[in-house]
Amino acid sequence: MEPASADRPALELLVHGVGGATPEKMLDDPRTVRIDGDDTAALFRRADDVTADAGPAGDRRRDTPVPEAYVWSNLTSGNGTRALWLLLLPFMVVNLAHWMRPAAREGLRAVRAYGLLVRLAALSLTVLLVAAACEVALDLTAWQCAGTAACAGRHSWLGFLSPQASDGGWWSLPGRRLALAALVPTALTALLWYLSHRTWRAYESQEPLDPTSEPANGPAHTALGRPGFWFGRRLVARLRAAHTAAALLTVAAAVGTAAVREDRRPGGPALLEVLGGLLEASLLAGALATVWVVCRRGRSEHRLDRRLDAHLVHRLPLAAFALLALTLVYAGWERPGWRSAGRLPGDAAFGALALSQGVLVIALAVVARILHHCPRERPARAEPDGTAAAGCGPQERCALRGLGGPAVTMLACALGGVMSGGVSQRVSDWLDGTGTFLDGPPVLLTWQASVIPVLIVVLLVLCCLLARRTVRLTRAEESAVVREYGVPRPDPARTRRIARARAMATLTDRGPLLVAVTSGATLLLGAGALVGALGTGKTPVRAGDGAQPLVQGAAQTAQALGSWLVGLGFVLFVTWGRRAYKDASARRTIGILWDVGTFWPRAAHPFAPPCYAERAVPDLTWRMAAWTRATGGRLVISGHSQGSVLAAAAAWQLKPSDRGRVALLTYGSPIERLYGRWFPAHFGPAALAALHEDIACWRNLYRLTDPIGGPIRLSGDDCGPQVDREPLADPLAYGRDEQHPLPAAVLGHSDYQADPVFAQERAKLLGRLEPEVPQQRV
């Protein structure tokens, strides 16, 4: 006979959150054993539980499952060198914007247009980064400083490039200096390609479980359940080839444009002029081919696309590299009388980039608004309070009314522009100490550095307003705390501490306001910088030159401050990044955005940091499917914080028959509070309601003092039992009593398992899951 379902083993698969955790802490036992996995991500059990599911449950209590910990912290942490990923923050942010599309029916042209515009914005950021490197290495260093005797004399390491040197070396010709300096942005491109290729082999090539052998229960309400969602091998390879080619073509254009301009002067060699025209035509053809590859195709998610466009992935970067090599040879040709004066023709290039990014953001905003007003996949119904909700899910709380993606894209472009302008101005100030030798970077970059202090003032004003609101909310929460705990003689300090924790936790819900103000201010300030650069013309070399004395003084002061602030920000970026990767507490503090950004696959920018979920989600899916089929037992996947998002994503990837045999326990979960608001197309009401209907049962725990976790907001009328439990008490006791002789701590986002309610809710899930387990086959 088959064993009864009550005798079958029960497994609790624990998934930790963003801060990371050790298996000893997760399992509450110093003796743990790794049962599967590697040094990057693995499954652990207590030493006494290694063979606990080999037979009947035995003397283990029915409400106490075998705990098993999935530790994935090494996917997002490592040595200090990984902090260099922070320098590519604009790439990660624009990739994040790709997934912020408003919820709409699949197949609409606006959906494809949204992804296309984000990919084009991502391509412009790659060009901007390499163009900034060319500005520093080619224009400021090799062209201006090495070509000026006074500047080259201050920096002895540039002596062999200076044409005023006594020996007049082979590298002193302007074209050869540019060709040599082009090695710097070329090496940067090679580094980006190497990092992307190495992480591509480690992350995107992890093949997930293929659920296509079993038909779905109904229409999919989220792309997270598609077989190829976590398998972006082909797309990332294509985008990597296109972005690498675009970067190399940018370097070639920076070197070749100066030589072509020299050859077109009256009296120049006719042969070189013809070669210059062919070179420009080749660069234009290469640019069109690169843009065509980026526009040609987005993600293929409906199946596991194991193909690889080898001819495109290998030939496009090689063709761009060959064109760059020919350009360097062409520029290094000896041209009598060619002298480096002024700046390289980069003003028009940076202006065109800034203008194109602004146009892309505005077009993306229009498309996002169209999608936001499109009918959803589920018909809306009326809530008791008169609001509309999709299906049995909550009212959709889409951030910024569908404009979250365009706002984040604007922030990515602003980050790229500010970093480019600030670094260029900082290097210019370092090379030209007195400010009299060099013309400096393009005027637009100096204006972009000038907007940094103004933006900081705007953010400080907003922070002051939010602090004022928090103080008021704290006072309002004090009466609620006293009423909930029912203390006759409250302690003012204790009450204030609890109320302040609740008020501070609500700041997470003000994130859309912060993003809206920041993106709107950067759009206006960026437009002002572009107009200011066009208004001052090409002759002035500093922001504000040629304007009124007051405007000129203010602009140059802001420029100097912005230059130093970018330098300080660079140091802080690296310092915080190293600390975040080496210190768990720092990673928990500043790693929220980072873990949210790297949760999503690289669908827009191949040089963004790798997606850890493309390893973690298949791991969890394979483990749940294999265990339920092998044992026929009960399984509760228990996720905290970001681990709850991974747990939900893994549940979506299961086959329908396996999904109906799994219970989900989430606590401190940002699924609706963060992901549901910012990523409505994937974690919107329809998607969450469909997940609740497909899995066996779901329970969510949260606290009012938790700044990250929150309710799922799924009603229990039409979707089965209620998902959210009432908020947990935090602290567990207001004052001292027999059960808490010492003052209880305000836990906030941590230690949910220490609450007695946790074990009670887990036992209820196991009890509800038990009748749904089918009999095991002979």
TrEMBL record:
Tagged with keyword Transmembrane helix: yes
Transmembrane segments: 83-101, 113-133, 178-195, 241-260, 272-295, 316-333, 348-371, 403-424, 444-467, 513-534, 554-577
Keywords of this entry: Membrane, Transmembrane, Transmembrane helix
Key word Metal-binding present: no
Signal peptide positions (record): none
Highest taxon in the source lineage: Bacteria
Name this polypeptide is given: Integral membrane protein
